[in-house]
Write a structure and sequence with these properties.
The chain is of the alpha+beta class. It has 2 domains: 88 residues, Helix Hairpins; 150 residues, Heat Shock Protein 90. It contains 6 helices and 7 strands; from the N terminus they run H-H-H-E-H-E-E-H-E-E-H-E-E. The chain has a 5-stranded mixed β-sheet. It has a two-stranded antiparallel sheet with strand order 1-3. Strand 4 and strand 5 form a beta hairpin. This is histidine kinase.
Length: 248
């Protein structure tokens, strides 16, 4: 993060405290996202206008250009999705806390990805202990964190693999523990810490933002996230979300 800020600001940011660095980076990302999104919107409009112009040309021209126009639209949409991720990076510092049943969030996320898992013959399941207390948390942000982790797990699993989402209580410290487990290749130890840094990715098509968003959201809730390998193989991402000890 320090290197990223230093390159953007042209100076040494090592003396800034962590909260200052995070706030500054969030502002930079928000400004960058808005600046990029404006020309993307303009490009999308002009692609539509170009298609209308092509319709007026002699027959045969539009079919030749249709494939190229579709590629342009697809790439514009992909860039817009990346920009939306940038914008989400600037937001999670504000937590709208309400009572949230973690089991409901897990159920929603698993139902969301059930069709994709089914098409790839991946077993996606949830196991939530009974009687878990509610969290004082931001439902939308927790949902986003779990969505990112499940996407990460599905990408790591081959066909006929397995992804599990589990939730249980932890007495000391007083917390709810959520685990996302997969039957993939596991985590290279040298990536275990760096994978939560912004823009760090080992995938050709990755943006390196998904896991950092998870880290931001969990940190904003006073919790922590870590990545390990299961003894039987595969990766395990563990969230610890604090709750008042009196409710456990």
């Amino acid at each position: 993060m320090d290197d990223l800020l230093a390159r953007a600001l042209g100076g040494d940011t090592s003396q800034l405290v962590a909260e200052q660095r995070q706030a500054l980076l969030s502002r930079l990302l928000s400004r960058l996202a808005h600046e990029v999104r404006n020309p993307l919107s303009s490009l999308d409009v002009h692609v539509q206008l170009l298609e209308e112009d092509l319709h007026q040309l002699p027959g045969g021209t539009l079919p030749k250009a249709a494939e190229r126009l579709e590629i342009i639209r697809t790439e514009l949409k992909r860039l817009d999705n990346i920009v939306l991720q940038f914008l989400s990076l600037a937001g999670p510092t504000t937590v709208n806390r309400q009572p949230v049943q973690i089991g409901e969030v897990i159920d929603y996320v698993c139902r969301l990805f059930a069709p994709e898992a089914a098409t790839r013959d991946i077993e996606l399941s949830a196991h939530v202990d009974a009687g878990l207390p509610p969290l004082e948390a931001d439902r939308a942000q927790l949902t986003q964190a779990l969505v990112n982790l499940v996407i990460n797990a599905l990408q790591a699993v081959e066909r006929r693999g397995r992804v599990e989402v589990l939730a249980r209580r932890n007495e000391t410290p007083a917390a709810l523990v959520v685990e996302v487990r997969d039957s993939g290749a596991g985590i290279d130890p040298q990536h275990a810490v760096a994978m939560f840094e912004p823009f760090y990715t080992t995938r050709d098509q990755g943006t390196g933002l998904g896991l950092w968003i998870v880290h931001q959201i969990v940190s904003a809730h006073g919790g922590r996230v870590q990545a390990t390998n299961a003894p039987a193989g595969g990766a395990v991402f563990t969230l610890q979300l604090p709750v008042p000890a009196t409710t456990l």
